[in-house]
Design brief:
By secondary structure, this protein is α/β, with parallel strands linked by helices. It folds into three domains: 4-196, 3-Layer(aba) Sandwich (Rossmann fold), CATH 3.40.50.720; 207-290, N-(1-d-carboxylethyl)-l-norvaline Dehydrogenase, domain 2 (Orthogonal Bundle); 299-431, 3-Layer(aba) Sandwich (Rossmann fold), CATH 3.40.50. Helices cover 43% and strands 14% of the residues. The protein is built from 18 helices and 14 strands. The chain has helices spanning 12-23, 35-42, 53-62, 99-108, 128-139, 157-162, 174-183, 185-188, 199-230, 234-242, 263-276, 284-307, 335-345, 358-364, 374-377, 391-394, 398-402, 419-424, and strands at residues 4-8, 27-31, 66-69, 80-83, 117-120, 144-147, 167-170, 194-197, 316-320, 349-353, 369-371, 383-386, 409-412, 428-431. Helix 9 runs parallel beside helix 12 and helix 12 packs across helix 13 (335-345). The mean pLDDT is 97. Bound molecules: uridine-5'-diphosphate-xylopyranose. The site of uridine-5'-diphosphate-xylopyranose has 20 residues, from helix 9.
Length: 436
């Protein structure tokens, strides 16, 4: 008999995991406390934008394997329960807020059947899994608990779930590993590396990976600062060091830095947890990684001021991009939106364009002006800032845009535009980390 699965929390991670597991042939129930989200998902509609997930979700709903509910009792039949709820940054500090993880485990505890396996996928401070095990020993001794961190990138969520570059499972016994191998068999059969770890190591793998990625980005942004001071070009530098396979050329794109729902909060939560463990010195460098990242946003504003004026009240600035990265409608901790809001606070008239993120951006920053079309946004602009590297921005025709703006001035905050093309059309072109 095929295993039955439940997925608790149907946000970005959970909805993706539920649809992908269903596509592997499992019967899956997704549970979320948000009634409107459950209604949408039940109709095969995605409450957020993620390439490829919409069609997969619709297909799995119509073949009947995938259902959604607000009722935790619906998990009773499932053999494996995946915990996919959020762990946002706490309101009062750097630590992760574990309210939803703890609440979801408590909510399913009375319903889970004998021999079932609860599998945490949420990103948590190391030690959380053991804490939950201790709780379950009282509330649901019939169930076991394992940890299986996810590494999915927004924009590639389906690909990263169905063809991940590794599977990591934190288990305390062979039986739990056997169950997880059964769930992931089609993925393992593709040759995907399988790593068995203990619970704390599995929890740590996720935050260590995100810390490393954040470090790479802040490293290249630190080099950008030095290039600016020394008259160098960070894009050439990144290319040159990236050819060394020990360094690698990925995640060396200099610009306004990282944002999103993961990297910023994960490195902060990691520091907070290390401090609790008495290992704060080991992660002191992450404080600098965070500081370099936040400084990249400020440097962008400094370039605008240096080029226009300290007093921005007379200027119309157009921000291209609101999401934290392209191919996503996620604006959580978006560097682009943060810069837009800071420029507006400094007195500039700011107009924001984004192909997918206008509605979520408007919810966070209702006072910014938004335009659905680039050609409408840029009318009368004194400066254009390219802050999220959507493909459509690379395809803009500088001559067409040049006829609409007041001043042909563009700053590339992502180092992705073809500056020769813009300059050939008569534009002043600046980029972070490049002095010429
Ligand atoms: C990240 C991890 O990549 C993923 O493995 C983890 O599971 C969740 O967190 P995601 O948040 O989707 O995924 O975004 P990612 O592609 O890592 O980009 C994060 C941020 O870094 C974006 O704001 C992006 O613009 C920025 N970035 C990325 C750079 O500034 N430069 C780079 O070279 C790469």
């Amino acid at each position: 008999m095929a295993l039955k699965l439940s997925v608790i929390g149907c946000g970005y991670l959970g909805a993706t995991h539920a649809a992908c597991m269903s596509s592997l042939g499992f019967e899956v129930v997704g549970v979320d406390t948000d009634q409107s989200k459950v209604e949408m998902l039940s109709k095969g509609e995605l409450p957020f934008y993620e390439p490829g997930l919409d069609t997969l979700l619709a297909a799995e709903i119509s073949n009947g394997r995938l259902t959604f509910s607000t009722d935790f009792a619906t998990v009773a039949d499932a053999d494996v329960h995946f915990i996919c709820v959020g762990t946002p940054q706490s309101k009062d500090g750097l630590a992760a807020d574990l309210t939803y993880v703890k609440a979801s485990v408590s909510a399913i505890a009375p319903h889970v059947k004998e021999g079932s396996l609860i599998v945490g996928k949420s990103t948590v401070p190391v030690g959380t899994a053991q804490l939950l095990r201790d709780q379950l020993a009282i509330s649901a001794p019939q169930a076991d608990l394992a940890w299986n961190p996810e590494f999915l990138r927004e924009g590639f969520a389906v690909e990263d779930t169905l063809t991940p570059n590794r599977l990591v499972v934190g288990v305390t016994n062979d039986r739990a590993e056997v169950i997880l191998k059964e769930v992931y068999k089609p993925i393992i059969d593709l040759g995907t590396p399988w790593i068995r770890a203990d619970l704390p190591t599995a929890e740590l793998v996720k935050v260590a990976a995100n810390s490393f990625l954040a470090t790479k980005i802040s490293f290249i942004n630190a080099m950008a600062e030095v290039c600016e001071a020394a008259g160098g070009d960070v894009t050439v530098l990144a290319k040159a060091i990236g050819y060394d396979p020990r360094i690698g050329n990925r995640f060396l794109q200099a610009g306004i830095g990282f944002g999103g729902g993961c990297l910023p909060k994960d490195i902060r939560a990691f520091m907070a947890r290390a401090e609790e463990l008495g290992a704060n010195q080991a992660l002191e460098f992450l404080r600098e990684i965070d500081a370099i990242n936040i400084r990249a946003r400020k440097r962008m504003i400094d370039v605008v001021r240096a080029d226009l004026s300290d007093d921005l009240t007379q200027y119309k600035i157009v921000v291209l991009g609101a999401t934290f990265k392209p191919d996503s409608d996620d604006v959580r901790d978006s560097p682009a939106l943060d810069i837009a809001a800071q420029l507006q606070a400094a007195g500039a008239t700011v107009v924001v364009h984004d192909p997918k993120g206008i509605e979520p951006a408007r919810k966070r920053f209702p006072n910014l002006d938004y335009q659905e079309k680039v050609v409408d946004a840029v009318k009368g602009a004194d400066a254009i800032l390219h802050l999220t590297e959507w493909k459509e921005y690379r395809e803009l025709d500088p001559s067409v845009i040049g006829q609409l703006v007041k001043s042909k001035f563009i700053i590339d905050g992502r180092n992705m535009l073809d500056r020769n093309k813009w300059r050939a059309a008569g534009w002043r072109f600046h980029a972070l980390g490049r002095t010429d």
